[in-house]
């Protein structure tokens, strides 16, 4: 790998991406980082052998810029970067809700921009990263983004019009599963199990179910039916979930997440 890649605003996800890229074959010498705090930048240098630089230096030096700042900080960062970003740079935005047009309007005309929404399982190389092209990005730019984010999990190309829905489903998705595990753990305690045993039972069940969903090729309805025997324990539990409107609540929650992503794009706080 000879191209230089810079990760700007390197937090947990940015660091996970760096780590995955190094394991996938990128040389640390070809990876640049920026961080708000100097001590954070030095920590990244010590841990991964990457080179801390300023945002301006990153824009002048790297072939690909990956912007991992929060959505509300993107405008400020682009103002700082704009004078230094040549039009042959690939700019990848990882900010939720920010459309590629927001970046294109603030960078030099013709700058290729790719939008990526990844998620926290990047920390364990099991991310789901959703990739969309801006108006100047080519198939080659998309392939390069896939190569980078493929180092920490799976990638999927979608039209940018679907990004807000993907943010609701996979960007925020891990939180829903953590919430469900938290609730099930509390239920296990209510049923008389120690917390650690309830946790282990639920986590392993979740891992097994996820692998079955990924590898079996079966529809989730079929997999659920395989567990649900007539007049058994599972169907009684499913009935209670339906009585309490869990399915409708999940749909409403995902719609709320999608709507918030749209609000971020419009600049709402």
Key attributes of the depicted protein:
269 residues, 12 helices, alpha/beta, eight-stranded mixed sheet
Could you give the topology of this structure?
Layout: E1 5-8, H1 12-24, E2 31-34, H2 38-48, E3 51-52, H3 55-61, E4 64-67, H4 74-81, E5 90-93, H5 100-104, E6 113-117, E7 127-133, H6 139-149, E8 153-157, H7 163-171, H8 173-190, H9 195-215, H10 220-227, H11 233-243, H12 246-266
Parallel strand pairs: 1-2, 1-4, 2-3, 4-5, 5-6, 7-8
Antiparallel strand pairs: 6-7
Helix pairs in contact: 7-12, 8-9
Query: What are the secondary-structure elements, in order, as H or E?
Result: EHEHEHEHEHEEHEHHHHHH
DSSP strand tally: 8
User: Could you say which overall geometry the principal axes of the C-alpha atoms support?
Assistant: elongated
Radius of gyration: 21 Å
Structure description:
The chain is of the alpha/beta class and 269 residues long. The chain has helices spanning 12-24, 38-48, 55-61, 74-81, 100-104, 139-149, 163-171, 173-190, 195-215, 220-227, 233-243, 246-266; strands at residues 5-8, 31-34, 51-52, 64-67, 90-93, 113-117, 127-133, 153-157. Strands 3-2-1-4-5-6-7-8 form an eight-stranded mixed sheet, with helices on both faces. The longest helix is centred in the C-terminal third of the chain and has 21 residues, at 195-215. The radius of gyration is 21 Å and the shape is elongated. The two termini are 40 Å apart.
Short description:
This protein is α/β, with parallel strands linked by helices.
């Amino acid at each position: 790998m000879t191209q230089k890649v810079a990760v700007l605003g390197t937090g947990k996800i940015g660091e996970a991406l760096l780590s995955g890229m190094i394991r996938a074959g990128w040389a640390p010498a070809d990876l640049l980082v920026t961080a708000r705090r100097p001590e954070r930048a030095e920590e990244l240098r010590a841990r991964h052998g990457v080179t801390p630089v300023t945002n301006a230096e990153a824009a002048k030096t790297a072939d690909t810029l990956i912007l991992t700042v929060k959505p509300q900080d993107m405008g400020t960062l682009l103002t700082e970067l704009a004078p230094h970003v040549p039009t042959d740079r690939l700019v990848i935005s990882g900010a939720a809700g920010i459309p590629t047009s927001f970046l294109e309007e603030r960078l030099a005309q013709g700058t290729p921009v790719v939008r990526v929404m990844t998620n926290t399982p990047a920390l364990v190389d099991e991310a789901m990263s959703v990739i969309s092209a801006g108006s100047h990005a080519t198939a080659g730019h998309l392939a390069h983004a896939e190569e980078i984010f493929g180092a920490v999990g799976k990638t999927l190309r979608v039209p940018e019009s679907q990004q807000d829905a993907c943010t609701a489903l996979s960007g925020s998705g891990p939180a829903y599963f953590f919430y469900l595990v938290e609730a099930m753990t509390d239920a296990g305690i209510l049923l008389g199990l120690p917390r650690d045993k309830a946790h282990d039972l639920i986590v392993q069940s979740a891992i097994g179910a996820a692998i079955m969903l990924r590898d079996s090729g079966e529809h989730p309805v079929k997999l659920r039916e395989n567990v649900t025997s007539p007049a058994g324990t599972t169907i009684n539990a499913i009935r209670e979930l339906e009585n309490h409107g869990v399915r409708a609540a999940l749909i409403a929650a995902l719609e709320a997440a999608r709507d918030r992503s749209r609000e971020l794009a419009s600049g709402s706080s």
